[in-house]
Amino acid sequence: MTETGIAGLLLILANVIFSYRGFNDHALLENFKFEVDAILVRKDYKRMITSGFLHVGWWHLLFNMISLYAFSGLVESALGLSSFLFIYFFALLGGNALALYIQRHNSSYSAVGASGAVSGLVFASLALFPGIGIGIPFLPVMVPGWLYGLGYMLYTIFGIQSKRDNIGHEAHLGGALAGMLAAIAFEPRALIENYVVILAITIPALVFLYIAVARPHLLVLGKMPGTPAKKYQTIEDRYNDAKVSKQQEIDRILEKVFRSGMNSLSRKEKQVLEEHSRKMK
């Protein structure tokens, strides 16, 4: 891969700084993460960008930053600094926009991470240089770029449809398409020279998007044919369930205080109430 440019290094630094702050500041994470209800109801549109600089843990951050480091130099050297930055933020917005559309009826859905933007850089690279080899983590093999792109698209579509893991596939798909589209806009010759690979990668995604928009009843989100009917909980589902449960506990304690006074609370109940008060400050 081409050596990472200054823009890529600055983006990595920004991700590390803000993600680290988010690890230690729950309020910051809550105020700047991608959240459907906050964006659509409260019109807090900054989250479409700020969520891309926060991560849920070191492994999440490390994986995205390794990918950003690996592909940023290739795109920046081929298209220049301003085009590179445009692709990065266009893919970030494109990924979150698709996630917002697909999850628009799920008000509790939330997410963080630079995955959409990074996917945009990866697929911008594939549009420009489809013959590049892409390494598989922890395996001593290189996969042809076109094969990786096709497999990635199919896996992402399956992930959105099945909801069998905790990955934000919607942002990955939207970011990948946005990044590839932007790269072609900056370098139109790529579409002429690499149209077979580009079409092979994008057609499955475009078909899926058409179904999601025009025939959403054909998608059975959360359940694959032949699987038993059950509610699959993602990390966010579990987080939101825990949040509701915690609020119910707080309400119960406050009701007890109202009826019997503070002295009626157990030591544990007082600790829960004090912790809640600190978070609300």
Protein described:
By secondary structure, the protein is mainly α. The protein has helices at 6-24, 26-32, 36-40, 47-50, 58-79, 81-102, 115-128, 145-162, 169-186, 189-193, 195-214, 235-260, 267-280, and strands at 34-35, 110-111, 133-135, 142-144. It has a two-stranded antiparallel sheet with strand order 1-2. Strands 3-4 form a two-stranded antiparallel ribbon. The longest helix is centred in the C-terminal third of the chain and has 26 residues, at 235-260. Mean pLDDT is 81; it is low at 221-239.
Q: What would you say about this model in short?
A:
The chain has 281 residues and is mainly α. It has 13 helices and four strands.
Q: Tally the helices.
A: 13
N- and C-termini, Cα separation: 47 Å
The residue fraction in helices comes out at 55-70%
Strand content: under 5%
Radius of gyration: 22 Å
What structural category arises from helix and sheet content?
mainly alpha
Q: Please describe the biggest sheet, giving its number of strands, its sense, and whether it closes into a barrel.
A: 2 strands, antiparallel
Low-confidence stretches: 221-239
DSSP, total strands: 4
Mean pLDDT: 81
Largest sheet strand order: 1-2
Label the overall shape: elongated
The helix/strand series, from N terminus to C terminus, equals: HHEHHHHEHEEHHHHHH
